Structures are given as C-alpha cells and as structure tokens.
Amino acid sequence: LPSFSVAARCRVATTLVLFVFAAASNLSVLISVFWGRGYRLGAHLRPVIASLAAADLMMSFIVMPLDAVWNITVQWYAGDVMCKLMCFLKLFAMHSAAFILVVVSLDRYRAILHPLDSLDAVRRNRRMLAVAWSLSVLLASPQLFIFRTIKAEGVDFTQCVTHGSFLHLWQETTYNMFHFVTLYIFPLLVMIFCYTRIFTKINGQIHENKDNESCLRRSGGDVIPKARMKTLKMSVVIVSSFVICWTPYYLLGIWYWFHPAMIQHTPEYVHHMLFVFGNLNTCCDPIIYSFYTP
pTM for the full model? Predict the structure, then answer.
C-alpha cells in the first residue's frame, strides 16, 4: 500500500507554500483588474486577465489543496460523490487555465495583425471566454462518470480511481492522451501559431521601416502603440511560463501512459517535483501581470 513518504511530505509542504502565495497574489490581481491599476488596461483585456486570475484561483483552491490533502491521507475518505466532484473540478480548473491562455494569444493575434477589428474586441473576447469556460466544463465532465471509490479486498483501504471504468488498458491510455492534447498540445499549437504570425508581422514592419528607428509601423502606416507592445510582451511571458512549467510534467505523463512499469524505476521525488513545478505556473502569472502593468 502507498504511504506518506518523505518525498510526499516535501511535496505537501511545497504545495502549501505555493497555495498561500498563489491564492493571495491572484486575488490581488482580480481586485486590481476591477478596482486598482488594472483598470488602465483596455476594456477588452480586463475580462481576459480577470478570467486568467480566476482560473489560477481555481488551481489554487482546488488542485493544490486536493493534492496536498490526498498525499497526506494517502487513501480517499470523502466518499464517492466527492471523489467524482473533486476529480471533475480538478480537470475543469486545469482546462480553464490552459484555454484562457489560448484566448490571451488569440486576443494579441487580432490586436497586432487585425488592428481595425479592435472596435469589436470586447464582444469578441467575451465570446471566446464563454467558449473557453464552456469547453472546460464539457471536457471535464467525463470525470463524473469514470472516477469512483474502490475498497481494497482484505485491508482497510479505499481509493478514488478509474478502476473498472475502462475495459481495456488502451481505452484508458486513449482517454489520457485525449486530455493531454486538450490540456497541452492544442493550447501550445494555437500559441505557437499566434505568436509566430505576430513576430513575423513585427519583423516585417521592422524591415519596412529601417529609416525610422524610433517606432514600429504597420503596413498601413499606423504606429504600434507602446502600450500594445507591452501587453504583447506580457502575453508572451505568461505563455512561456505555461510551457516551461508544464512541459516536464506532461512528458513524464506520456512516458507513464505508454510504459506504466517506468514508475517502478523512476525515483519517487521526480514525480512529486514535476507536478509541483507545474503548479508554479499559477504563481508566475500574477508576478508577470504586476511587472508589466503600469
């Protein structure tokens, strides 16, 4: 049976520290967006940044405490309903955090490549945010049906698992890979596309305006405002933080899904460390926001 090992204790301690920081900092961002200096952001950006902070708060108040408590108790004591609900909320929080970053990227893409569409930016962003939150609920909903509490035979041990929900191992692997795509690959591809197009556009403008080193100009002759460029930089750093923090964890997950035996040969602290490192992303967003917001 699993136990509350030294590595798990370190994971719990680190997670609790991250929880306190992430909760406080993301709450301050949420307050700032509506009542503080964040009010200087464009009207189309405020709901996006607020949604990002809200998604990070869900990660802070759902994923982190759940992970810490579950590592401490080792087994599941909260019953079948909470097993299903908490697993749903965990995946919902993770999807929402990833999809809001997609909205951030698409917003910057439209702002730089299609500046004339800025008049419709508020309504467009609200629609994209609605889709992001709705998709997060939809994609997390299977958790309500596949997770259940199972009591081990012969011992007093109950766990919240997917055991019995899949007839074959390949079905569970397919399910996990699907969420790997929706949580990581799809957002990553959208981000790469958006920022590649953005930097190609900016690079083209630099070459077109060699004689004017004081500013960047669009093909139509309009100056790209410094505020817009600063927001672009903030978006790039936020997205980079997501990629850097979560890539090792998901790569380890792929390895495990296709080679389950690897868990026996990988030091326990590696699994704990990579998940904690992924959670660090929740703490990075408010720091980046405060650095780039005047």
Answer: 0.85
